[in-house]
Amino acid sequence: EAIEKGGYDHFMLKEIYEQPHAIKDTYRGRLRVEQGIVKMAGVDQNLERFLNANRIIIVACGTSWHAGLVAEYIFEDLARIPVEVEYASEFRYRNPVITDKDVVIAISQSGETADTLAAIKLAKEKGAFVFGICNVVGSSIARETHAGAYTHAGPEIGVASTKAFTTQITLLTLLALKLARESGTLSKTKFHEILTEMEGIPAKVERVLESNPLIEIIADVYKDAENCLYLGRGYNFPVALEGALKLKEISYIHAEGYPAAEMKHGPIALIDEQMPVIVIATKKGHYEKVVSNIQEIKSRKGKIIAVVTEGDSQVRDLADHVVEVPESSEALSPLLTTIPLQLLSYHIAVMRGCNVDQPRNLAKSVTVE
Ligand code: G6P
Prior knowledge:
By secondary structure, this protein is α/β, with parallel strands linked by helices. Helix content is 46%, strand content 17%. The strands form three sheets. A five-stranded parallel β-sheet has the order 4-3-5-6-7, with helices on both faces. Strands 9-8-10-11-12 form a five-stranded parallel β-sheet, sandwiched between helices. Helix 14 links the parallel strand 10 (276-281) and strand 11. Helix 2 runs antiparallel to helix 11 and helix 11 runs parallel beside helix 16. The longest helix has 21 residues, at 163-183. The radius of gyration is 20 Å and the shape is globular. The mean pLDDT is 96. Bound molecules: 6-O-phosphono-alpha-D-glucopyranose (G6P). The site of 6-O-phosphono-alpha-D-glucopyranose has 15 residues, from helix 5. 6-O-phosphono-alpha-D-glucopyranose binds at residues 61-64, 108-110, 113, 116, 159, 161, 362, 364-366.
């Protein structure tokens, strides 16, 4: 096992560090900047189904559901296709309205999650075209769907999902870009710009990973917290949800993710000097709005840990701690802002003596209801 961990203390840490490589493996062969295209066989063969879709319904569970939420922003923003994101477990039992004009995208790392599998079967019965995004090759979901694409993240052993999440987002972004270009909702120039930016993401993730020692110091300050709040807006709202889930899963600290502006409708009542609030406050995407949310937290004495864009000074002046990420478009920012949150959860869990790779009561793959 020590060999499998490749010198890391835990699989989770190894998998966090594998992300630059894993993201590259996801877009390799698909992202073709020189040709100005995105190649995805499963999409090319079914292009009409996608282009004629009334809407896309994404079904998934857990972290994969969070990737679906990020995709909702990307698809609507770039490809202008209406998207709904559903927990597979709810979707399967609520007699959903689905027609043969709908495209259902099922996202699953393992490809074996029972609820997601059942949602796929239901969608197929109702005539929808079902596209799978899985990591495990030949898995049940990969076999059950009409077409699909693999994330190629490599085996993920840690129960808390890390590289599966970022590679799912990478793949969903490629899909959105492809559809946006094919349908003409995205200009050639903008398309090219995002493709080029995507190629630079692995190097930027490497840079975020360099903040690991700083994040370890922050983790030491907050390791005894009983509650934690995660806030983000736009594309980074689902990242806040995922950050909170990571902390809950492996450190057993109660954590909630919220859209930053919703804070005033409830969670703000919880903020006092004991409450660490992790805020994603990158430059592109509602920056000024997030800054005013940070001011609201500060005036209630909450402790602020902010994920900011390199060189930021405004939030730095307000926050107790900042972790910088390289500049990026809002659309690709989740691939960067997620990383510090993974590392923060990891270090807190280790410091609390938790079993990081196999947290209590959780399974890597939930194959029963
Ligand atoms: C379990 C795992 C999570 C995962 C979820 C969905 O709860 O612990 O990490 O996100 O299942 O799994 P899937 O394999 O369908 O992505």
